[in-house]
Amino acid sequence: MNETLKTINSLRTIHGDFSSEEISSEDIETILQASIKAANASARQSYSIIVINDKEIMEKLCGYSGSRLLLYCVDYTRLSDVAIHLGFQFERKDLTGFITGSTDTILAAQTAAIAAKSMGIDSLFTNGIHRGEPNRVYELLDLPREQCFPLIALVLGYPSEKITTKKARITEGLIHYGKYKRLTAEQMDKLVQKYDDPSEQLMLTDQWKEDFEHYLDWFYVNWSQKGDTSRIDNLLKDTGFLKK
Question: Can you name the CATH fold of 3-163?
Answer without folding.
Answer: NADH Oxidase (3.40.109)
